Amino acid sequence: MPMRTEKPKCYKSDIQIVMMQSNIQIRYGLQYCLMEIFPNANIISLDSLAALSECPETITADLVVSDLCDNGTKENAGAHWLIGLQFTRKNKPLLVFTNSKKQNAIATLVQNTQASVATTKTTFFELSNILGKTLKGERVFSTSFNELFLRPQENSRQLLTKSESKVYVMLRSGYSVTQIAHQLSRSVKTISSHKRKIMQKFGVTSEVEMFAKFKDEHG
């Protein structure tokens, strides 16, 4: 669970939060964090995606905080379920709080929603900032999530530099050059340059060939 290394920002607004975590220890810890960050909030704590689906407040809640899966639902199915939920909620603020390492499922979710993502390694202080920005309609990825999600796969091309590998993983996951530039705090020109070098090293001359190469290597 998030560690309290710094005093988090406290949001006084009277909001409604619906959260779902199937792991009881994580659920209690996350609920405590939310109560500290939002002392005036009405927090509904649930233990499954089915319960989240059946809860009438889920649709109208100011914020939903949910894992990507539960004891009976795997990550890919959970990602598609959350996409459907966000369509119904008209993309109201969603924070996915997960330890899942299923990049395909997470990529599917972030490509089709505006969800923010954090992990249990996220610090308490960072979590409070992520929640505040998420409620403002921003998408935020925690530092711990970026470190996991941007880590190159073992079968990525060894010729790529560290920076190119990060861009490679994000391109493969469906991010645009502009989105990658924003996430990595780099200019669009720099990311475009990395993309050109990746294409050269892969021996392709078009985006169609490059994405076909991704498909061949990763199925």
Automatic annotation (TrEMBL):
InterPro entries reported in the protein's UniProt record: EvgA-like, Sig_transdc_resp-reg_C-effctor, Tscrpt_reg_LuxR_C, WH-like_DNA-bd_sf
Species name: Enterobacillus tribolii
Molecular function GO labels: DNA binding
Span of domain HTH luxR-type: 153-218
Pfam families membership: GerE
Highest rank taxon of the organism: Bacteria
Keywords recorded for this protein, A-Z: DNA-binding
GO BP annotations listed: regulation of DNA-templated transcription
Name of protein: DNA-binding NarL/FixJ family response regulator
